[in-house]
Amino acid sequence: MIELLVISRLLEYPDAALWRHQQELFAALDSGNHLDKEQAHHVGTFLRDLTSQDLLDAQSAYSELFDRGRATSLLLFEHVHGESRDRGQAMVDLLAQYERHGLQLDTRELPDHLPLYLEYLAQLPVAGAIGGLQDIAPILALLKARLAQRESHYAVLFDALLRLASTEVDTAQVAQKIAGEARDDTPQALDAVWEEEQVKFFAEQGCGDSDITAHQRRFAGAVAPVYLNISNGGER
Fold first, then answer.
1. What local confidence, expressed as pLDDT, does residue 78 receive?
2. pLDDT of 185-208, one tens digit each?
3. Helices 37-51 and 155-165: crossing angle, nearest 10°?
4. Cα(1)–Cα(234) distance, rounded to whole angstroms?
5. Which neighbouring-strand residues pair with 113?
6. pLDDT value of position 92
7. Distances from the Cα of 230 to the Cαs of 139, 160, 172, in angstroms?
8. Are 234 and 121 in contact (CB under 8 A)?
């Protein structure tokens, strides 16, 4: 699925190479046949609008959107496991899955980064790629809804991924879920997390809630992990 490679690239941190090679992405998008014309047009429009911006502005907007708080994190296991201890083993399992398919990671890359996962799926047969997308469809739907709520054009890319997944998502249920969420990317929310993490760092071990991180306490009533299993994603 060439479309997965295009969307993967667009979900990465914007860099000068994207601006230089944008025509290649347009050509790749045109060569795909898994998105209908309207959806492909939406993705192409996103690419055009993104690369029409000043690079530094695009980078700043990306960081504000995806690197502040858990709600719009592109790390899949933030939404699957939260801060639980299962996350480390899940990382190991997913990394092994990549390696079995010949995908070698740079040491700086986290295996659950969505653009990397999409790159992996793009190497699989179509049925396997669709299955892998279906495994993370609840996460994709939540991210799409949260991005739309913040009036971000990046929501278009998640809509395209859900179309490629060929699966139905209960949009009413997703809307109901995010309606009660507190924003976790405001200065006040980020300051609160930082302060609680400092308290935890200096606290003596053995406290009654030592296994509950400050991050989990702060967001216990806000953005909750979506517990689903993607350990076998893409293997059909």
1. 75
2. 555 444 444 344 444 434 444 444
3. 150
4. 13
5. 75
6. 74
7. 11, 20, 23
8. yes
